[in-house]
């Protein structure tokens, strides 16, 4: 196995269609937040089918299943898998909160001509092309709705995962081995 060190930044230029990060963990970058969550295989195919947040009960079942996978990845010393599971827990929180705050899922108002001629290298890494526009009004029940409760479930599991002692140990080891 190679111990070549790589940059900390998530690399969106990799051939994600043909890269197995379980076999080539040295190519993985933690990045910031949820970067790569919908790209990194085989983890996306393993975790995404479990990821649901429509109701609090569905979120509870989903978060428990994803957290169980997180623990399996840690036991198998598969840091990339554990980090991807952590990202899905985080994404469960952020997406449920988005829909709790804005039922449409759209945070910003859209102005005519917004984004024309703009191109993002990868949409998930750059944020909305409407960023900077006015923020849509928050739902009246944003803190008590079913989506808010679903978000709280994912937040609980995400907090546990990101503070997990073995996760932090493996992250440090991974960073020392592969990141410059």
Describe what you observe in this structure.
- The longest helix has 23 residues, at about 80-100.
- The chain has helices spanning about 45, 55-75, 80-100, 125, 145-165, 165-180.
- The protein is globular, with a radius of gyration of 18 Å.
- The chain has a domain at about 45-105 and about 140-180.
- Helix content is about 45%, strand content about 0%.
Structural shape:
globular
Low-confidence sequence ranges = 120-125
How many helices? The count is 6
Strand content: under 5%
Give the tally of β-strands: 0
Order of helices and strands: HHHHHH
Structural class: mainly alpha
Give the biggest beta sheet: none
Percent of residues in helical segments? 40-55%
Mean pLDDT: 88
* Radius of gyration, in angstroms, nearest whole number: 18 Å
Distance between the termini: 17 Å
Short description:
By secondary structure, the chain is mainly α. The chain has six helices and no strands. The two termini are 17 Å apart.
Please outline the helices and strands.
Elements: H1 43-47, H2 56-75, H3 79-101, H4 123-126, H5 146-163, H6 165-178
Helix pairs in contact: 2-3, 2-5, 3-5
Features of this protein?
single chain, about 180 residues, mainly alpha, 6 helices, globular
